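dude i think i finally got it to work??
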Amino acid sequence: MLRYAEDANYWDTAVSPSISQGEIADLLEKFEADGIQTIQGSAGGRYAWMIRFQWEGRVYRFTFAPLTCRFPDKTFTRSGVERSNQDQARFQMGRIALNFVKAILIAAEATPAALFGFLELPGIHPGQAPMTAAELDVAGLTGMLPEVQGVPLLERAK
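look at this
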């Protein structure tokens, strides 16, 4: 099971989510990404960030959600500033997201395939947000393979 927010890294951060978003955008710009978008909102009652960008002609997407709080109704105080544990989990999410993106981009500089799971695959569900490679199941992935001389590539390998 995932750790509760109160027990995970960066719980005590005072860095606001907007600063973390700006730092992520700076990392992506240094990585020479284009079309950087940061979207935040709620889906299914859960707050999340979606960070999209284009790199070398392909679109990639990261999504982040705050960790679950063990005590969501408690308040957290740091440097005299009080906020709810749920709000503090958003601050924490920003730092987790920054460090995650930084690590992936460092890996992708050496091995671009490090970004493969975050690659958006357009056309799978028209009219909806494209799935990423990591969101596909095996049936969906094999269904995308091209046919070779009228026979699906997977059947030909049998």
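The chain has one domain: 5-118.
im so relieved honestly
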